[in-house]
Amino acid sequence: MKITIVGTGYVGLVTGACFSEVGIEVTCVDIDEKKIENLKNGIIPIYEPGLEKMVQRNVEKNRLKFSTKLSESLAGVNVVFGAVGTPPGEDGSADLKYVLQVAGEVGKNMTGYVLMVTKSTVPVGTAEKVRIALKKALDDRGTNIPFDVASNPEFLKEGDAVNDFLKPDRIVVGVDSEKAEELMSRLYKPFTMNGHPVIFMDIVSAEMTKYAANSMLATKISFMNDIANLCEIVGADVNMVRKGIGSDSRIGQYFIYPGTGYGGSCFPKDVKALIKSADDFGYSMEVLKSVENVNERQKSVLIAKAMKYFDKDLRGKTFAIWGLSFKPQTDDMREAPSLVVIRKLLEAGAKIKAYDPVAMEEAKKVLGDKIEYAKDQYEALIDADALFLITEWPEFKFPNFTVMARLLKNKVIFDGRNVYDVEEMKELGYDYFGIGTKRL
Question: The domain 299-433 belongs to what CATH superfamily?
Fold first, then answer.
């Protein structure tokens, strides 16, 4: 089976590589000539564990190809995935410009039946707009080639996307024809043979499922951050509370770890888009609006702790930052809480020395020379007035606290992920501030 995927960003590249891994012939198309040339040579534009070797392996086996020309990538192909970006507008709505451009290009160049599958995260009703764009392109050609549209939202976790795709909890597919369902069933047969379920539904429900899933997870995070802040006020320990409620199977242990707020490419954008979609239909998503407010407030919680500790004066002080990406195992800086922390520290007159295992280059694109970049985690500590731990990379979990004490000007840690034990930090002589934990 042969498929074409338009877009070689996070979703498109992972999707293409994983489909090729199970034996499907895949062509990934992108207008970025430099990116395509790099991909042909096995150089990938994102950090994702396991992805680089998978791309190289399947390129060598000629199962995975890359092109800048969609018109030349449709021959013998019945299924085309649109995996282009849907950047948020100022009002929170998803920009569908690229999604509809892809549909139009497919309509201009298709020579036989095509199932146009939307993989990008898009608002409810997008499939109908894709159908109209594709039909218009065919009408402009004066031809009546049959086609279908479908929705196949992704549920990939950055940092574990390859494993998520190959071993999914579920595969959601929205279709409105038997032919589309049959094609998608064939495409996902290697996964269903291994026991991973495909859930077929109508297209609108599939579109809504993606936003509902991410918004639910974002809600859990913001709820726990609110609980963590209340725990500090009343003298409870959020780590104990988390264990107590996480053992309830109705709640579960995932997405109930408090921190400095959620970030990345999905949760912020998708929550905003669902709120905007509801507003467009005359309905106000009050819970999600509160989720957003809590998340924005949470990104500043460590700053409030630092201001209190240093008597509201951070001028001239130097702070070490451990972790820049929005979460471990990715170099994604989009909506990263570290950016809010750094911006507020700079506004308060402080200097920053930061380190991240993989996100330094991405951070430089955003922050430039506003901060200093350390060669390793310990260099960042030299003569720093305190450490801010923002992203819980594995290498930060068991540092040499003796070495840290020698390098830091003050033995002060503001831990945005509750990585360290409060009692141990006290025994080691550190002033330690977590999220929702007791300060002994």
Answer: NAD(P)-binding Rossmann-like Domain (3.40.50.720)
Residue with tokens 């820049």: 324
Provide DSSP, 72-116. GS-TT--EEEE-----B-TTS-B--HHHHHHHHHHHHH--S-EEE
Residues with a catalytic annotation lie at 266
DSSP state of 431: E
- Tokens describing residue 96: 């569908």
CB 127 within 8 A of CB 149: yes
**pTM to 2 decimals?**
0.88
Q: How far apart are CA 54 and CA 41, in angstroms?
A: 13
For the domain 211-297, what is the CATH code? 3.40.50.720
pLDDT in tens, 3-43: 999 999 989 999 999 999 999 999 999 999 999 999 998 88
Output the CA torsion 153→154→155→158 (10° steps).
-150
DSSP summary character for residue 379 = G
Question: 22-32: string of b/e by CB count within 10 Å (b at 16+)?
Answer: bebbbbbbbee
52-62: pLDDT as tens digits: 999 999 999 99
Q: Which CATH code fits 2-201?
A: 3.40.50.720
pLDDT at 88: 79
